[in-house]
Amino acid sequence: MKDRQYINFLFLILLIMYPIIGFSGFTLPSEISAIPTKSSSSSSFVDDGLLLIEKSTQTKFIAEVLVNGDVSDLKNTISHLTSIDVRGTIIFDPNDINQIVHLAVIVQYNNHFFMKTSEGWSSWDSLKLEDIVPYKSILTNDIFEMDIVNGLEGLSGSFKIYYGYVNKDHDIVYTSMPINLVVE
Fold first, then answer.
1. Cα(73)–Cα(160) distance, rounded to whole angstroms?
2. Which among 3, 25, 14, 169 is positioned nearest to 104, based on CA atoms?
3. pTM of the full predicted structure?
4. pLDDT of res. 47
5. Side-chain half-sphere CA neighbours of 98 within 13 A
């Protein structure tokens, strides 16, 4: 089981790497949702970043989920009648400060995948790496705050949200676990 989860995680990381180094004709398996989740009892979810290659990173990811403007601990199912916002903060590794990085956000909604683009959200049901583009490139400071999801309403189901970046060395630094939302 752990081998399958590790392989699924590597495939997810590769989809972020595509815009920088490129792959063609590669399709991800539908079992990508098998990645385990971290739980947290606080209202913020702190995540140590991961790198695809065996190298350490000091990058930290902090996520907050707001339901009708109030921070949620995600202990309960969220009503589809509420407004949901997800915010992410990246505290960059010192080696990535003052560098241009390429941000990417992938959301699995039930059995469908979506990527954040500069125009909004785009379907990514093909699971082909050549269909992925980073939604934004930034010059980093110590900390970057981003709105991952804004005003989600009326959709029920399961959401898994991943975010991260590719640095100048083509290292992929990504959340080690998704932000999990269950909306009914």
1. 16
2. 14
3. 0.69
4. 57
5. 2
